[in-house]
Design a protein that fits this description.
alpha+beta, 49% helix, 5 helices, rod-shaped, 15% strand, 150 residues, two-stranded parallel sheet
Length: 150
Amino acid sequence: MHRKFIALIVSLAIAITAISAAPARANDTAKILGGLAALTILGVVVHRNNKKKRERAQVTQSHIPQAPLIHSVRPLPPQVAKYDLPRHCLKAVKGYPANAPLMKRKCLKRHYKHADSLPQQCQITYWNGERSRRAYEPRCLRRNGYRFAG
C-alpha cells in the first residue's frame, strides 16, 4: 500500500514538473494525462494479480494436512514434582474402616524420596488384626496439595 502511494506521488510530481516546465499546450497535457492513466491502470492490474496469487496460496496451504506437533515433555521442576506421590502405594487396607485405600508408609519410604516431609496430620495408625500400622490418608494429602501420579 505504501509503495503504491509513493509511486503515485512521484508520478504526479514528474507530471506536474513536466507541465510547468514546458509551455502549456493541450496536445502535451493530453499525452501526460494519458500516460498517467495508463500507469494507474497498470498498477491496478498488477495489484489484483498479486491479490489473486495470495488468495490461491492461502487456499492451497489450508488444505495441506498438518502433521501433529510433538512437544517434548520436560520433567517437572523439583519443587513441583515433590507433590507427585506414587499411585501404586495407594492400597486398600484391611482393618481400616470400609477397607478404604491408604498410602502405605513403607511403600512411600521406598519409592518417594520426600516421604519424611509428608504432613504429620495426615498420618494415621490402624490395626490390621496382628499389629498396629501407620499410613497416610489420601484425602488429607490431596487437601495439602499432593497428587497421585504414575
